Amino acid sequence: MGGARDAGWVAAGLLLGAGACYCLYRLTRAQRRGGPGLRLRPSRSAEDLTNGSYDDVLNAEQLQKLLYLLELTEDTSIIERALVTLGNNAAFSTNQVIIRELGGIPIVGSKIKDPNFSIKEKALNALSNLSVNVENQIKIKVDSSFLSLYDGHVAKEILLRALTLFQNINNCLKKEGHLTIQPTFTQGSLFSLLYGEECAQKMRALVNHPDADVKEKVTIIPKF
């Protein structure tokens, strides 16, 4: 009798254990498929956030880590990946505000001067996304050398990014296809450069650019 009772308890234990394992399997499988259940996410370092496998929208803490990384690292591959991640996240209006409040706009803007072609392009792309927010536009500072990005001999990818930045800013200032006001801003601001005579001359010259994509971008921006 005692042996039969013991065997019964062992069998019951095995059944409970098997059931628990099956539930754990279902939960893990659901998480991998994006189904219902608790999503467990390990803590990620700033560099981990740039590796391309983290596809969630970043929160303020993660964005701050990324900005610190971008400011401190000298590794060009990490800088490029960080700018791509910031640019993607800057497409969301909430993160446009967060990045500005974290002081990220000058950090991103400083990379425009980087001699590395790819870094320059990715920095311009991130700034273009950030510039959709009107308050962010005021924070973007670049010196007169910024206008050299609109020279006709500049690589097409860089030129298109720079024109997109201009277009985004312009779209925020116009109504029904026309500028609602003629912007007047302090000397050295991005606005004073983009709406100054030197930039106007460059835009008029780009109308004759041999590349069709560049010409199309320029025609969208109002004549000066």
From TrEMBL:
The chain crosses the membrane at residues 6-25. It comes from the Eukaryota. Gene3D superfamilies: Leucine-rich Repeat Variant (1.25.10.10). This is Armadillo repeat containing 10. The keyword Cell membrane does not apply. It is found in: Mitochondrion outer membrane. It comes from Pipistrellus kuhlii (Kuhl's pipistrelle). GO terms for cellular component: mitochondrial outer membrane. InterPro entries: ARM-like, ARM-rpt_dom, ARM-type_fold, Armcx_regulator.
